[in-house]
Structures are given as C-alpha cells and as structure tokens.
Write a structure and sequence with these properties.
Blueprint lengths: L5 E7 L6 H15 L5 E7 L6 H7 L3 E4 L5 H10 L5 E4 L10 H10 L3 E5 L2 E3 L4 H17 L6 E4 H6 L11 H14 L4 E4 L5 E3 L2 H6 L4 H12 L6 H8 L4
Length: about 240
C-alpha cells in the first residue's frame, strides 16, 4: 500500500466525550480533500482509564498506547506510528475545518513554508475570552506561531527531534520555535493558514473561569525558561476533571 499523504496525530487522555466530534469533523475534511486513504488518523492513547481507545478504534483510527503521562510523549508516540509525508497534530477536544488539508497542501506547495498551524476560533465567547484572545494576537503576529492543527513534513519533525519530552507544558511552543530555526536556514517560515481555523474547546475556561488565562501565561513563560513548578501543571493538564 502507498503511504498516506497525511498522518493526523491526536494525543488523548480520557477523551471519550470529546473525541467523537473531532473524528466527525476529520471525516468531513477527509471527504473534502479526496481519497480517504490519503489521510490516516492515529490516536495516541495516553494511559486513559475510560473508553478513549474503544471510541477511536470503532471509528477506524489507529490506536497506540503511550503510558508516560507527558503530553510531548503522547505526541511523539503517535508520530512514531505515522506513515504520512506530512504530520498534523491536533488536540482531542478541537474540531477541524473542512478545508484543513487543502489549505495545508497549498502552504506546503509554495516551498516557502517549513511548518505552521491553522489557528483557532473559540466555541463560545465572553468578555474574558475576547480579551484573552486579543492579548495573544501580538505574540502570534511577532512570532508567526499559532495553535490549532499544527503541521510539518515528517522529515523536518525528525530533524528537530520531535517534541521535547522534558517539558511538561509549552512543548508545542518549543517545537514550533525549533522548526522556525530549521526553516530560517532554508529561507522558509512558519505559516498561519487563512480560512481553515479549527474550533477550540473552552472547557478549561468553563472549569477555571473566563479570566484565568492571564495567570496561566506567566506559568507558561516559566516553563519555557525551565523554571516552572509541577503543582499547578498537574492540576491543570495532568490531573484534569475528567
């Protein structure tokens, strides 16, 4: 069998509630893109204790079990099973845009893009969420980095060593920074796609409050500098209310 064009990698811990809607959105995007065999979906089951693996298998995903409870390890565990030319990472509580894969194809085809992300829009809005979103915009403009469906060529993923498993959080930022450095030497940049934004869940805001992200930003900076603690990290990311 010919390898697929895309490998979509979904890190998942106890995501049986949210995973179905992501997979439904991926099915739509696959149909828009073309032959279904061009896109494989891999769920990296990060030691779930619920029906995550069953839900994924019933919907035709490849499932790989990753026992180490580190988000970077789950991303890398899924990537280790990938056969696609392009890797696309997306969180289990998101939903992808129908034009996702066609938009990535257009960006890659220019030859000027080393990696990128689709960006997101939130599934609900409030004043706190709106101000949080506005606060992030200058950082996105300055760095070229975004969130949503994060994509790169498999060879470039390998060249930067994948996600840093020593980081409990902010591994996604460090990954894009490494890819940006790789691309700079080749005259390539990070791309922020237009018109294919994923829908991001607001469940963290539902749980911690619509204004909580302003305190979380400082925690993220501390982790990027290697000075972050584990108490809040465990409560927010690794021992979630689910």
């Amino acid at each position: 069998m010919m390898p697929p064009r895309y490998s979509v990698i979904i890190p998942a811990f106890n995501e049986e509630r949210y995973l179905p809607r992501l997979l439904e959105s991926l099915a739509v995007a696959r149909n828009v893109y073309g032959p279904a065999e061009g896109i494989e979906v891999i769920v990296a089951d990060n030691a779930s204790t619920d029906g995550t693996a069953r839900v994924a298998a019933e919907r035709g995903c490849r499932v790989t079990r990753v026992e180490r409870r580190v988000i970077a390890a789950a991303r890398n565990g899924g990537a280790a099973e990938a056969r696609g030319e392009i890797l696309a990472f997306v969180d289990a509580d998101m939903r992808v845009h129908p034009e996702t894969f066609r938009a990535i194809d257009r960006a890659i085809a220019t030859g000027r893009v080393v990696a990128g992300a689709t960006g997101v829009r939130l599934e609900r809005m409030s004043l706190g969420l709106a101000l949080t979103f506005i606060t992030m915009i200058p950082m996105v403009w300055l760095t070229g980095m975004d969130t949503g469906v994060v994509f790169c060529r498999r060879e470039d993923y390998l060249a930067v060593g994948g996600y840093d498993e020593n980081r409990l959080v902010a591994e996604d930022v460090a990954f894009l920074l490494a890819l940006r450095r790789l691309g700079r030497g080749r005259g390539q940049r990070l791309a922020r796609l237009r018109g294919a934004k994923a829908i991001a869940s607001t469940r963290k805001f539902d749980e911690f409050g619509d204004w909580h992200y302003f305190g979380l930003m400082l925690e993220g900076v501390r982790h990027l500098r290697g000075r972050g603690g584990t108490a809040f990290t465990d409560r927010y990311w690794y021992r979630p209310n689910r």
